[in-house]
User: Which sequence fits this backbone?
């Protein structure tokens, strides 16, 4: 029942994006991603990640994300995690968020709980994430100089899954399908227009070279709301970005003697 209500909410929201009280900014995006969970011991992993996000598919900057964290395997089905992220948003689109043509900086910490499950041959993962965000504010005289940091909170929920295409399991040298949907909700002080922050939905194909090395190419749709109203019309700005996500996942095992 809860899933039905969520789907209904998403359909109603998507149907209202063309209403005249909103400004729509459409961009073609290409996200190039590396991530790895490197085993340190039986239960601990080091997480490393970099995302090179582009607009016009590859021609210009959208965002840069670098993340470092630790994972703790509580059970086979439950994983806890936390980490730190450095994030830069560049001016892009018809209504850039970045002020005065200068990239905006953000630092984040996060805490995760990830639950694994299975539905037949489909492997599912539910990830709940809390983020603490510090967004840099540039000085009026020199926007490149960070004058202060604005604090915000955000909650995220992601449902992801993989489906083997060449048997009941995903083995080395085999293709599989993958998908995810993630919703972002801002809360607390300083959220402004950003209670609904964004939603991402993605699906595509992956290839497993071996357990520690996979490549995935997905279609990606991103809907995101700007934190401030458009200054002239005082209307909220929504981006509807479509493109692809190329993900390389490579894990190392440092626990071996």
Assistant:
């Amino acid at each position: 029942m809860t899933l039905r209500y969520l789907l209904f909410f998403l359909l109603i929201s998507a149907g209202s994006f063309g209403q005249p009280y909103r400004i729509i900014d459409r961009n073609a995006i290409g996200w190039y991603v590396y991530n790895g969970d490197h085993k340190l011991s039986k239960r601990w992993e080091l997480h490393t990640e970099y995302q090179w996000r582009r607009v016009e598919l590859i021609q210009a900057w959208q965002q840069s994300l670098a993340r470092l964290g630790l994972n703790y395997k509580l059970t086979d089905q439950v994983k806890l995690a936390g980490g730190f992220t450095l994030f830069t948003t560049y001016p892009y689109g018809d209504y850039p968020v970045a002020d005065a043509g200068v990239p905006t900086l953000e630092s984040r910490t996060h805490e995760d709980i990830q639950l694994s499950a299975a539905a037949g041959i489909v492997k599912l993962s539910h990830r709940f994430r809390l983020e603490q965000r510090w967004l840099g504010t540039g000085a009026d005289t020199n926007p490149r100089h960070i004058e202060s940091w604005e604090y915000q909170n955000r909650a995220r929920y992601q449902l992801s899954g993989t489906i083997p295409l060449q048997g009941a399991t995903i083995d080395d040298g085999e293709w599989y399908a993958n998908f995810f949907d993630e919703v972002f909700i801002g809360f607390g002080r300083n959220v402004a227009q950003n209670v609904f922050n964004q939603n991402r939905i993605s699906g595509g194909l992956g290839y497993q070279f071996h357990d520690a090395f996979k490549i995935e190419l997905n279609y990606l749709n991103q809907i995101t709301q700007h934190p401030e109203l458009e200054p002239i019309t005082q209307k909220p700005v929504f981006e509807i970005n479509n493109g692809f996500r190329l993900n390389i996942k490579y894990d190392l095992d440092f626990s071996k003697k």
Remarks:
- The CA atoms of residues 164 and 176 lie 5 Å apart.
